[in-house]
DNA sequence: TGTAACAAATTAGCCTTGCTAAAGATTCCA
DNA sequence: TGGAATCTTTAGCAAGGCTAATTTGTTACA
């Protein structure tokens, strides 16, 4: 929690919020996903995800399309601007972390990588 | 972020929120602290911390006292009820994590412990 | 085939907890 | 002693969780 507050301090005004960026990241790397699936991935309720997607659509970073096979579902895709901002933001955020990471030993970086894997397994249970 | 959302799902209704519990934890283990110091420890602004402390005081888990050496400062201390709930909540939360941790190897647990140390250093810079 | 149950998204409204700006207190120092 | 600095507090805003209820579409079965 404290690390994410610290990272938030590094965010510029024009950037997307944590949830928005994380959600856009999913559809950027996994391809188009439904609201329900995104909610599941972000461990958030469907209404919460719906609002996040609204923000992304309003900002021009994502689009909603009806699912061809099931009219209840909505497919969320990243626009070109969305893909672009994911890459740019990642690059900019990495800059902050990269400075810190540069001060770590390779062994320490490896420890963080392993911890990430373990934590992901814990949350996915 | 996703892990903390997952952990939030394990919280019962009567329990304190994440920020409240974390703040109470500081004064429980570090002893009485000022609002400003708590804000710094939690990486939050003073007004935000002030509100968190209000909640704790209203709930009977903490008390405000004027600093004897500097009238501007306010010392926040844990009440007996506060100390008690920190211990109880920790025990209950640990139960959830403990089940998951039991499934880890000693080496994996060690990796998480090391990662914590490294991350703490990163946030404190 | 018509209808009832179910499923997915959405809307509405609440709460917590960040924030900034500004207002009190109190202290420090020239 | 008066003004700047420091610490807390108040007020008000925004993001982003949540639940409950509504809408729309699908599926199952009598």
TrEMBL record, chains A, B:
Residues 1-124 form the HTH marR-type domain. GO terms for molecular function: DNA binding; DNA-binding transcription factor activity. The keyword Ubl conjugation does not apply. InterPro entries: HTH-type_Bedaq_tolerance, HTH_MarR-typ, WH-like_DNA-bd_sf, WH_DNA-bd_sf. SMART domains: HTH_MARR. Gene3D superfamilies: Winged helix-like DNA-binding domain superfamily/Winged helix DNA-binding domain (1.10.10.10). Coiled coil: none annotated. Keywords: DNA-binding. SUPFAM superfamilies: Winged helix' DNA-binding domain. The keyword Repeat does not apply. This is DNA-binding transcriptional regulator, MarR family. It comes from Agromyces cerinus subsp. cerinus.
